[in-house]
Amino acid sequence: MGILRQLLILHVLWAALVFCQYEDYDFEDEYGGEPDHQLPYYFNPNSQVEVPHFPFPVECAKECFCPPAFPLSMYCDHRMLKTIPNIPSHVQQLYLQNNNIEAVPAGPFTNVTFVREINLSYNKIKFHMIDHGVFAKLSNLVQLHLQHNELEEFPFPLPSSLERLLLGFNKISQLSGNALEGLTNMTMLDLCSNLLDDSVFKEKPFSNMKNLMQLNLCNNKLQTMPPELPSSLRHLSLENNSISHIPENYFRRLPHIIALRMSHNNLQNIPHNTFNLPNLLELNLGHNKLKQVFYIPRSLQHLYIEGNEIENINVTVMCPTLDPLNINQLTYIRVDQNKLTSPISSYAFFCFPLIRTIYYGEQNVTVSRPTRLRTPVFRRFLTPEEFQEAEDNHEMLNQETEEDHEEEDSYFHPYY
């Protein structure tokens, strides 16, 4: 009985350690801190793949580290590796980022069955150096990081189990017709900072991704809005392209959009009801060529239209009717670097009773030098503590350089 009791205690302790690794590990190490309004992504510990029992100590590649507290994870990052070591069959999380890996052969993955996350970011991997089908056979793979490599093409085929794929900062210039086939469980696809142009849309590559919720296409060479996006989409990032027009009724197919980011494009005119979307919370059209405002939906909370050519903000265009039973939710507007000569009409506070901050900043009224309105920042409904915090934040904002802003805007954070 004594031996059985000791074995039972050891088994319970091991199960607790396995569960705790999912509670404690931070999956956001690739992109730094999260904005407050964005929710990080974690694996659900209740959905982990069942792993066969194995004795301690767990098997681990000699080049890597497998902490006893996280027996299903193998850490091979930041070790100047040029090749992928053999991977034990029980591993579920594999971290190989920040190395000098150039190829992904099938050999190291021969016995891999349960892996759910692979991080190969910040390496030197090229498309033709990935063995065909090496990822496709990993039937439990949920998340794959390949950003900051040298991929020229989309790394297909991929397993149908995949939910999140990060391919930012590569050299991808094309998406073949079957590249995204079968990825019915994909919820997040990041293709920012590649070489994609409008030709990639000819075969409507995203149309069959029925569960896609976030699509990042920022920092590419797009000139038109991507057609045939799935209606499931919640977050769309198109910053830093050359898009000049949004077709009328474009968003009728995308009723669930929550956040739309199109800063640093060439937009000049917005059709009046373009953003008549029931769930839109954040709209960023900063640094375009807009001369007039447009209708905004009642759901919208944050509006960014800085860096345009707006001379007057017509509140009645933004808010044509008042409905006391269904008030506008707008709380923040950023309108700096436009051509305003006077603050927004006080009628705005009838239309937007929840508004807390209007950031006027500097206005580009004259070519020679920017000017300030008398009220660079308007705030209301702030407690003394909140007001002081806002003042401190504003002072810090004034100390930032233009390079800081460019760096901040250069890449869209992949996690909303």
From TrEMBL:
Family annotation (Pfam families): LRR_1 (PF00560), LRR_8 (PF13855)
InterPro entries in the cross-refs: Leu-rich_rpt, Leu-rich_rpt_typical-subtyp, LRR_dom_sf, LRRNT, SLRP
LRRNT domain: residues covered: 59-93
Top-level taxon in the UniProt lineage: Eukaryota
GO biological process, alphabetically ordered: cell adhesion
PROSITE patterns according to UniProt: LRR
Signal sequence bounds: 1-20
Region (Disordered): 391-416
Cellular-component GO terms for this entry: extracellular space
Entry keyword set: Cell adhesion, Disulfide bond, Extracellular matrix, Glycoprotein, Leucine-rich repeat, Proteoglycan, Repeat, Secreted, Signal, Sulfation
Composition bias, Acidic residues: 400-409
Entry annotated with the keyword Glycoprotein: yes
Localization of this protein: Secreted, Extracellular space, Extracellular matrix
Keyword Signal on entry: yes
Predominant location category: secreted
Matches recorded under Gene3D superfamilies: Ribonuclease Inhibitor (3.80.10.10)
Similarity section: Belongs to the small leucine-rich proteoglycan (SLRP) family. SLRP class II subfamily.
Function comment: May be implicated in biomineralization processes. Has a function in binding of osteoblasts via the alpha(V)beta(3)-integrin.
Subunit architecture: Binds the alpha(V)beta(3)-integrin.
PANTHER family linked: AGAP008170-PA (PTHR45712), OSTEOMODULIN (PTHR45712:SF3)
The protein's name in its UniProt record: Osteomodulin
Gene name as annotated: Omd
